[in-house]
Amino acid sequence: CAAVRQLLAGQQHLDAPGTAAVDQLDETQQQQQQQQASGLPALLLLNLSRHPNDETQPAQLLPALAVQITDACPLPPTSVGDTPETPIIICLGADNRPMAVSALHVVGMVRDPEILSDVLHGQEDTLHRLRSILDDAAANPKLWANLASKMFSCQVTFGSTLTSALAVRLNLPLESFQPVDPQQETLEQIEHQLVVLKAAKQQLKEAQQLEKEQQGQIDPEEIFAVLAAADGSSSSNGTGAPAAAVDDALASSGRELAVAAYKALKAGADPLNVAKRMMRKAKKVLAETDEGSETTWNSFMDVLGILVELNAMEAHTLRLLPLGLVARSINCNNELWMAAALSHPGVMDLTPPQLAAFVGALQCTDLLKRPMSIWSSYQVSDAVVTAIEQLEPTMESIYQAQTAAGQTRWNEHLAVDLRLAGLVEAWAGGASWQEIMADTSIDDGDMARLLARTADMLKQITFLDEQLPHLVNTARAALRGMDRKPISDLVA
Question: pTM of this prediction?
Answer without folding.
Answer: 0.67
